[in-house]
Amino acid sequence: MTTAIKWEEVFTKTYKEHGYEQEEITAIYRIEMDARAFFDFGGTVPDCLRLQGIEKDDKEIKYYWDSHSTQASCPFCSHMSNVRANEYYTKPIQDIPRDNLAFYHIVRFQKYRCENGGCGTNLFTERFPEFSEEDARKTVRFKKYCAERSLGSGCYAAQRQLRGEGAVISNDTIARYIKAEAAEVIEANIMRDNVKIISIDDINKRKGDKSSGCTVFLDWETHKVLIIIRGTTKEAAERALERFPSSEYLSRDRASAYSSAGDECGKTQVADRFHLIQNAHHAVKDALSEILPAKIYIREGDGWVSVDPEDEENEMPSFYVPDHVVEERINAAGLTPAKAKKYRDTLKMLELDSKGMRTANIAQAMNISVKDVRAIRATAVTTLQRVDDKIAAKTAAQDLGGIKTVSGERVQPSNRSIVEPFRETVIELWNAGRSHRDIYTTIQPLGYSGSSNAVYQFILKLRKEMPDEIRQSQSRAVKKT
At residue 103, what are phi and psi to the nearest 5 degrees? Predict the structure, then answer.
């Protein structure tokens, strides 16, 4: 069992060792206690409480207080009494922890006799609601301290943190403090008479569970929550709106229940900002979907645009690619099944779109969703361009005798290659009939630190840049390797 260290005993022993008399020690101790109470708890502990002593062990710190009040108000009739009874009530009140130890005020409250003859109470205990509420075992500031911690991290996390600091507290207790403080705020909000515009919206306490739906009421001018009620029905919203008779306007979404509640309460209703922007966004998208076919320009000269030459001035160009051409291009580009399907869908969408069909009709004709049609339209240009690039790359490779090559904007010229310092050796060996792997093993002892593939790519670039100096007959050697 841990033995508590008492401040008075340590204080007395120390002063006696320095030659002080007991009367002097008592007087100095009283001054010491008053000074500590003022500097440590001034404005927190009531002035009528006087510090008597301090105890400390390895788990907690205790400050002992006695009441020296001369009057108190009866909690039952509010009559001020000056008659002190010779009785006391002592209880521990926990405060914010110190030095990783639980901190308690052990307060001895004075009891008074009620002087009001009409009050049925004889004795009552004085109360200090600004310090600790009636029957509470925590100070007011410690409750607020717990609530603030939980708002930032949750009740369970706040419990772990506070216990790590030495406090004796549970997550259930912290949750009760939050609810009590929230109830006070809501009560004050309901009593307000200066709310002009109320914003209303619904939320679910559990995502996707409509049975947990609640309605949130906010002050539009301050953007602060006024009240949250259970339910999203007209009746629930109407009862809450009646609590704010000073409000003139109701900002809401498109829920019919809230619209009906606003009508019943006589509020001028406006759409909230989010839904105004959303409605405008949808209107713009619908308008663009209707005029988009007239804005699509397709390249001519390769069979991709079909126009009737006899009636070109009166008819819009129609986009059409024959099925056999589509399959030829898919094979030429070497597309995977998934990419081939996307390519066919893109061409079909463009064909229907060029005929003036709307997005919804295109989706029905292709047996896909409207969302998928919009996605295909958004990537149509990229899809067609990629197929063109793949066909062009394969065609270029065939022109070089089947040599695999590279294409695109990121390809660097041969003079930036790591093989450039060995250009003459590479050209000489290549024209002599050596493969790129043989060249790689030859230039390695000369200081080359790259890969054989870099040599291979270097030769391909030379074939394009210097066709007269590089022999074409070597393509078979490269292809075999």
Answer: -120, 125
**Domain range summary for the chain, segments of one domain joined by +:** 5-137, 192-271, 291-390, 400-480
Superfamily of domain 192-271: Ribonuclease H-like superfamily/Ribonuclease H (3.30.420.10)
Residue 90 pLDDT > 90: yes
As beta bridge partners, residue 55 has 6, 62
Burial of 32 by CB count in 10 Å (0-12 exposed, 13-18 middle, 19+ buried)? Answer: middle
How many other C-beta atoms lie within 10 A of the C-beta of residue 261?
Answer: 26
CA distance 163 to 158: 8
**What tokens appear for 215 in the block?**
């309605």
The continuous run of DSSP H or E covering 142 comes out as helix 140-153
Is the backbone of residue 433 left (phi > 0), alpha (psi -120 to 50) or beta? left
Please write the tens of the pLDDT for every residue from 146-170. Answer: 999 998 888 999 999 999 999 999 9
Angstrom distance (rounded) from CA 205 to CA 212: 5
Q: With left for phi above 0 and alpha for psi between -120 and 50, is residue 100 left, alpha or beta? A: left
Q: Provide the residue type at 250 as one letter.
A: L
User: Under DSSP, is residue 86 helix (H, G, I), strand (E, B) or coil?
Assistant: strand
Q: Helix %, strand %, coil % for the chain, to 5? A: 50, 20, 35
The pTM of the full predicted model, rounded to 2 decimals, is: 0.52
DSSP, collapsed to helix, strand or coil, labels residue 190 as helix
Q: Which tokens belong to 44?
A: 């927190």
